[in-house]
Amino acid sequence: MAGKEFKKSMIEQAGENLFCFALDREDVKTLVAHLPEEVSCKPATVEYELQLLKIISIGWSISFILEKNPFKDELAEVFWKAIHGFAENLSEMTELMTGHGIDYFQAARDRLDLYVAALADNPGTAEPAAVIGPEFASQCGNREDIYTVMTGSRMFIITVTSVKEYLESGCIDAAAR
Q1: Cα–Cα distance between 14 and 78 in angstroms, integer?
Q2: C-alpha dist (Å) from residue 107 to 49, 100, 104, 111
Q3: What range does the domain containing 7 cover?
Q4: b/e for 42-71, b at 16 or more Cβ within 10 A?
Q5: Burial of 105 by CB count in 10 Å (0-12 exposed, 13-18 middle, 19+ buried)?
Q6: How does pLDDT run across 117-171, given as a tens digit for each residue?
Q7: Which residues touch 151 (CB under 8 Å, ≥6 apart)?
Q8: Running DSSP on this structure, what letter comes out for residue 145?
Q9: CA–CA separation, 167 vs 41, rounded Å?
Q10: What is the pTM of this model?
Q11: How many domains does the chain fold into?
Q12: 127 in the Ramachandran plot: left (φ > 0), alpha (ψ -120 to 50) or beta?
């Protein structure tokens, strides 16, 4: 029983760490701060979309990087449950403050579906960021804005790389012991 509790606690800890990383805004703020004046998309829209992209990139990374790992589904469930709870609270607060209901979790699911469909439509693309960047820019209002394309691509690459490094650091392998 102690081994099972250890396994569960390691997966829950990894899920919590990834959740905290998803909500950390430093990289989002840095990318927005470095947008040039020539950008045609509104910085507030870029910031909102970057946060969504970061969240879904983490969820996507769990499934992709841990494709053959027996703990992939458990970790994904812990992560997405945490995101769902946060989004639910955020949606409720927004409705109380503005009087308008916004389902932030549904917004994240819609974006995930959009990006996954875009990747499926471009199966020969060697680098997923080359597909994600233009889709990101499209969500921000201008698919042709190279600065926004690059910003979305950067967020995707940074996030996937960070998740890969974290997951390969042994946090999940320890759960298998």
Answers
A1: 9
A2: 10, 15, 5, 6
A3: 2-176
A4: eeeebbbbbbbbbbbbbbbbbeebbeebeb
A5: middle
A6: 999 999 989 999 999 999 999 999 999 999 999 999 999 999 999 999 999 998 7
A7: 31, 32, 35, 46, 50, 133, 136
A8: -
A9: 34
A10: 0.89
A11: 1
A12: beta
